[in-house]
Structures are given as C-alpha cells and as structure tokens.
C-alpha cells in the first residue's frame, strides 16, 4: 500500500487512464474486425469513417498507445483491405 498521498493519487489516475485506453483499444479492434469480416464492400465502407474517426481521436489524445503515424498505418492497411473487395 502506498505511503505517500501523491502516489495514491497517481494510482487512481493510472487506473482511470488504463480503463479509458482499454475501452478505446477495444472499440478500435472491434471496428477493425467488422471491416475485415465484412461480406460486402458496402458494409466495410460504412464502418470505415467510424474507425478513422476513432483512430484520429486516439492519436490526437495519445490514447491506447496510438500516435499519428500508427493511426495512419492502420488507415492505410484498412484501405488496402477494403480496396481488395
């Protein structure tokens, strides 16, 4: 158990950030799975703006370990998958 007040606060902050990051990462992975398992190109195209928005927001806020370049790489890979339909 922490002895310092500031460490107790940092533990609370870490737990909150961990929960947010896990939620964001899960939503992105679910959206990716939806696109990769889509049966038609139209289904994938409907999900793409949602995924791109989530990636951009995560990169802008530094959530779930996403940087601007990582988000860009994900977008490129998704576009490649969709264009293969």
Your description of this structure?
With 85 residues, this protein is mostly helical. The protein has a single domain (5-83), classed as Ribosomal protein S20 (Methane Monooxygenase Hydroxylase, Chain G, domain 1, Up-down Bundle). It is 81% helix and 0% strand. It has three helices and no strands. The chain has helices at 5-36, 41-61, 68-83. Helix 1 (5-36) runs antiparallel to helix 2 (41-61) and helix 2 (41-61) runs antiparallel to helix 3 (68-83). It is elongated and about 60 Å long. The termini are far apart.
The stretches of 5 or more residues where confidence is low (pLDDT under 50) are none
Helix tally equals: 3
Distance between the termini: 54 Å
Q: What's the alpha carbon Rg, rounded to whole Å?
A: 17 Å
| Average pLDDT taken over every residue | 95
- CATH-assigned fold name: Methane Monooxygenase Hydroxylase, Chain G, domain 1
Structural class: mainly alpha
Order of helices and strands: HHH
> How does CATH name the architecture?
Up-down Bundle
Tell me, briefly, the overall form: elongated
- The total domain count is 1
Largest sheet: none
Oligomeric description of these chains: single chain
CATH H-level homologous superfamily name: Ribosomal protein S20
